[in-house]
Amino acid sequence: MEVEGCHFQFRIALLGDAAVGKTSLLLRYVAGAPGIREPELEPEVAPTVGVEFYSRALQLRDGLRVKLQLWDTAGHERFRCITRSFYRHMVGALLVFDVTNRESFEHIRDWHQEVMATQGPDKAVFLLVGHKSDLQSSRCVSAQEAEELATSLGMAFVETSARNNSNVDLAFDTLTSAIQQALQQGDIKLEEDWGGIRFIHKTRSPGPSSRNQHPGSCQC
Ligand SMILES: Nc1nc2c(ncn2[C@@H]2O[C@H](COP(=O)(O)OP(=O)(O)OP(=O)(O)O)[C@@H](O)[C@H]2O)c(=O)[nH]1
User: Fold this and answer.
1) Structural domain of residue 44, as residue ranges?
2) Which chain regions cross the lipid bilayer (predicted)?
3) Phi/psi class of residue 167: alpha, beta or left (left: φ > 0; alpha: ψ in -120 to 50)?
4) Domains in the chain: how many in total?
5) ipTM entry
6) What is the pTM of this model?
7) Separation between Cα atoms, residue 213 and residue 207, nearest integer Å
8) Which residues share a beta bridge with 166?
């Protein structure tokens, strides 16, 4: 995979039932980017209407630079036709449930199925996220059964808490690395007319020895 002077953009969505904590998880992740001060307290968040957009840049293990375009989707059923229209344009999804809400866990297969039905099997990489892990006393989904579900669906599992800032970076890093691996192995392919992954080439500025080349510009 070419690295120097180039980077990728990965489009990733957070999917899951209403109020499982998708916005809080995403706000915590975006606030944790280098140079951004962490929020002092988890803010009271309003339910998402349709889809909202965020981004964060990442440097991967081998020096590859990735810009994550992050889509926060509404969990409520009445927005489903809007969120569905985004599935085809993403390469990764965090399937989020609330460890204190059994129903949200039971709906994970439906979320997965819905994306697969829209996208086809070779486009999306998933991560199962058990959120609100700080609420241990009211937990009703064990880590073991979540692991089993993740394995049966062919994805990794991470438990997170926006309140404790626990494993937030790990969740996004795990998904990003899995996308990178799928790309390197050819399981996912770059396609001109598909926005899930964009390859952004930043050409060098012309030096004395490159006078005949067209001056390049960064398209990011
Ligand atoms: N204890 C605890 N509460 C959380 C955590 N993350 C979010 N919450 C709370 O859960 C509630 C719902 O959080 P949101 O982030 O709005 O959930 P959402 O999944 O984006 O909801 P929709 O936009 O309706 O789909 C809010 O009251 C949050 O404060 C967490 O890690 N721990």
Assistant:
1) 6-201
2) none
3) left
4) 1
5) 0.99
6) 0.86
7) 9
8) 161
